[in-house]
Amino acid sequence: xxxxxxxxxxxxxxxxxxxxxxxxxxxxxxxxxxxxxxxxxxxxxxxxxxxxxxxxxxxxxxxxxxxxxxxxxx
Length: 74
Known about the structure:
It is a single chain. This protein is an alpha+beta fold. The chain has three helices and three strands, in the order αβααββ. Strands 1-3-2 form a three-stranded antiparallel β-sheet. The longest helix is centred in the middle third of the chain and has 15 residues. The radius of gyration is 11 Å and the shape is globular. The mean pLDDT is 89.
């Protein structure tokens, strides 16, 4: 269910970069960045399940130093 909540969060803001802190707050309800690795691990598991998009790109992209974004055109 956590992966689904993460996907839902990213898809609701498709094309926009979501910082890890915002993802932690929305998906897990955390107000701290101490658990930032949980986002990275959950994104990894989600990517494995999603595979690639219809155009061969990654649907969930990492924006280094900022966060993640869902790219529906991938």
